[in-house]
Specification:
With 349 residues, the protein is an alpha/beta fold. It is built from 13 helices and 14 strands. The strands form two sheets. Strands 3-2-1-4-5-6-7-8 form an eight-stranded mixed sheet, sandwiched between helices. A six-stranded antiparallel sheet has the order 9-10-14-13-12-11, with helices on one face. The longest helix has 19 residues. The chain is globular.
């Protein structure tokens, strides 16, 4: 595992962590010399960043494409009303708050959409990738990049009162494509906008992700979870699904054959700015969507018009038109990243 130089940490500050025998002086020192990449800084991402910066990680690169809104505040713990009032970029706002929490941590905020063309650059110099994203396309891309770089990464996601997380170590554990051979089709997976979300589940999953990160970055990889963990706080249920044998049971094209189609840009969305229309077209080759089922899911979000050929949703000043072949046009912006963000937020790919 590659680490930056390992400075002597302020053991007075971290005294109670250091007294935890499984971490100790050596583990804290390693953590203080480590660097991680956080992909996404919304609900999960901001909570993970908060925990790791307080724990004394050496450096954290935060990449996020979005800005702070008032509707984020019930569950996105790093942000406040001032951030929402000015529409601050989440990566930048997070770094400003985190610097006031621990000025020793080196923070690298980047306002960008994570794509095949830039993700490997974001991975430079880090020892771990953390999932704070809101869509499976980015997660499948992270999975490919992690395999290509031999980097461990931690998958996590929350919707409603349920969350799940899995730690992935290339060459040792099952990867995301072992668990999910294909990315869910557009409109199939629930999103926070369609199913809602409760703040406490964010804290629960973020805590698991952050603790797994501390294990890896402190050199205690043997202590990581080898299970897919599913937590439902509303039903008071926690399930641990043993996935240790999954890598041997499936002939995964990604981690067994290194067919990294997401990293190569052969899978995922295609975008085009529609000239003169203030709109962006998003295409998903080979995908399809049930417009009727999607209309039911979006009925409580905003005005929906649906016919056998297309669905149209008006929300937040945008007009999203979805076709049966999963192609969509997001009107109201010519910014590709903004269009992808609003599509992921409501359609859920």
């Amino acid at each position: 595992m590659a680490h930056d130089s390992e400075p002597t940490p302020n053991f007075d500050r971290y005294a109670r962590q250091v007294r935890f025998a499984a971490l100790g002086d050596d583990g804290q020192r390693r953590l203080g010399g480590a660097k991680a990449l956080l992909c996404g800084c919304g609900a999960l991402g901001s909570a993970i960043a908060h925990l790791l910066v307080r724990a004394g990680i050496g450096a954290l690169r935060i990449v996020d494409r979005d800005f702070v809104e008032a509707s984020n505040l019930p569950r996105q713990s790093l942000f406040d009303e001032d951030d929402a009032r000015v529409g601050a970029p989440k990566a930048v706002a997070a770094a400003e708050h985190l610097r006031r929490i621990n000025s020793d941590v080196r923070l690298d905020p980047i306002v960008a959409d994570i794509e095949p063309s830039n993700i490997e650059r974001f991975c430079d110099g880090v020892g771990l990738i953390l999932d704070g994203t809101d869509n499976f396309e980015t997660r499948f891309l992270i999975n490919d990049a992690a395999i290509a770089r031999g980097l461990p990464w931690i998958y996590g996601g929350c919707v409603g009162a349920e969350g799940r997380t899995m730690t992935i170590v290339p060459g040792e554990t099952a990867c995301l494509r072992c668990l999910m051979p294909e990315c869910p089709a557009p409109g199939v997976a629930e999103t926070c906008e369609t199913a809602g979300i409760l703040g406490p589940i964010v804290g629960a999953i973020a805590s698991i992700e952050a603790c797994e990160a501390i294990k890896i970055l402190s050199g205690r990889v043997d202590a990581i979870s080898r299970d897919l963990t599913v937590v439902d706080l509303w039903r008071n249920q926690t399930r641990r699904i043993d996935v240790r044998s999954l890598r041997d049971q499936v002939d995964c094209p990604a981690c067994r054959h290194e067919e990294l189609v997401w990293l190569a840009g052969r899978q995922g969305h295609r975008t085009a700015v529609l000239c003169g229309r203030n709109a962006v077209q998003l295409s998903h080759p080979g995908a399809s969507v049930s417009l009727e089922r999607l209309a039911e899911k979006l009925s409580g979000v905003g005005p929906v018009v649906c016919n056998p050929h297309l669905l149209r949703l008006k929300v937040e000043g945008f007009e999203i038109t979805v076709f049966a072949d999963a192609r969509a046009i997001v009107a109201g912006t010519s910014d590709v990243a903004a269009a992808r963000a609003v599509y992921a937020k409501y359609i859920g790919h």
